[in-house]
Amino acid sequence: MAEKIILKLGGSVITDKKGDCKVDKERIRALANEISQRTDVFPIIVHGAGSCGHPEARRHHLDKGLDQTNRAGIFVTHHAVGRLNDAVVNALRDSGVESVGIHPLDACTAKKGRLISFNCETVELLVKNGIVPVLHGDVVMDTEQGACIVSGDQIISYIAGKIKVDRIGLATDVDGVLKDGMVIPSINTESAGELDIKESSNTDVTGGMKGKISELLSLAESGIESSIFHVSRTGDFLDGRDHGGTIVTK
Questions:
Q1: Half-sphere exposure at residue 199, Cβ-oriented, CA atoms within 13 angstroms
Q2: What are the record keywords, sorted (predicted)?
Q3: Which region holds residue 146: left if phi is over 0, alpha if psi is between -120 and 50, else beta?
């Protein structure tokens, strides 16, 4: 039976985060090809927004909530990240991977920026029927502040808390969690407190690497390990080999 995994494609590796919704179609095609070549793993794909969502959310200050001045930001932000989701799904399908996009705006609600509802049964049924779900960071409605931005990392944390998966991997534009330019092979709650983890240098309304580590440490406390590695090592992660990155563990 194939391993069930969650694979996160960072927004910084599938878009040019310095551009304005500039999709890296070549990188996405290469990743889709890597995924299509593996029959012993079955992925739930989650991707970040990168330059297709973060700039729009920032311009409409949706990270601060919803008011009468920024309602149009919900459409603009969701439309941008939806374009990226279409690009990922289309590349997977062109590579022979049956897949479909799932949009958190349609399926989730949050409270004060944290997910409180998402019917994961749809994801489970897609996987059961051999269809790869492709989710993404998105704007979602929020019971307290009207709307908020939910990162792909928070989506991963929520799904992994509801659906049993064998492994979780995050493909990023860095080799892992770094200290003095060197990869830290493993971190946990205690050691993470000693690190000075920087925010993303590009437009990011979801916390960059700090946000990733926070979500993954929460999973680790419940016994679910995750890996952070450079996107060029995605094949190694899929094959269960050493990926040269960081393992977030309990």
A1: 7
A2: ATP-binding, Isoprene biosynthesis, Kinase, Nucleotide-binding, Transferase
A3: left
Q: Which domain holds residue 150?
A: 3-248
DSSP string, 147-212: EEEE-HHHHHHHHHHHS--SEEEEEESSSSSEETTEE-SEE-HHHHTT--PPPPSS--SS-HHHHH
| Residue type at position 27 | R
115/155 Cα distance (integer angstroms):
8
Residue pair 173/212 in contact (Cβ under 8 Å)? The answer is no
Residues in binding site: 8-12, 49-50, 54, 152, 173, 208, 212
Contact 87, 80 (CB under 8 A): no
The model's pTM: 0.91
Binding residues for ATP: 8-12, 173, 208, 212
- What is the Cα–Cα distance from 203 to 205, expressed in whole angstroms? 7
Residue by residue, pLDDT tens for the chain (250 residues) are: 789 999 999 999 999 877 778 899 999 999 999 999 999 999 999 999 998 988 888 899 998 899 999 999 999 999 999 999 999 999 999 999 999 999 999 999 999 999 999 999 999 999 999 999 999 999 999 999 999 999 999 999 999 999 999 999 999 999 998 888 899 999 988 887 766 655 555 545 555 677 778 889 888 888 899 999 999 999 999 999 999 999 999 8
Local structure of 115: helix, strand or coil: strand
The CATH number of the domain holding residue 86 is: 3.40.1160.10
Interhelix angle 25-36/72-94, nearest 10 degrees: 50
